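Q: What structure does this chain adopt?
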Amino acid sequence: MKKYSRALREILHRVQDQNENFMSQKSLAGSCKISMDTVNRIVTKLSEFRAIEKKPFGFRVVEPKKVLLYWATTRNLTADILYSTYSPDSMEEIENDMPEGTILTAFSGFQRKLGRALSGYDEVYVYSDKAEEIERRFPEKMVERSNIFVLKSDPHLVSLSKDGAAPISQIYVDLWQVGGSPADRYLLELDQKFEAKTVEALKALAKLEPSFGAAGSRNAPP
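A:
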């Protein structure tokens, strides 16, 4: 996965999970273990379409949905596939037979994260550094269509994943890349959740900065 994805993932994690709209480039570089140059390039790109506002000591995220969609449209999920194969087992059986430490994403991640699935799905996407072990459990088969996809993981993704599921923003981006009618239904549900999260974050920001709500100004922290 491209290093810039770590920065976008971290930005969305802070906004969605920590109600943190203001952050510095230095803190992003440290959290993601990437260079300041990489962070500055992504911050510049996000500011071009006003997803963020640059400030003297960092930047403020004003349109998190734009950040999410930029990541979704620039990510290349196919390039991260380490191994793929087909198994006649049920999706639940496939998920349960994955090695310890495997991170579920896309449909499986949605179900693990939200505790339910919207409809039946027939593909399992996971992040893992144990592709060889997964290949041993699910040997390669000469079929036209795979239903198991093992994606390259990274330390930042591992640090933000909980209960065997990727962060919700990663799940969204991967579903967007998978595409198709089943993925669209899941994305619609996640869109509603992100909208609610954005409203909550703005309310929290208004409480911290009375002038934001009263006059519409967005003052940078001192």
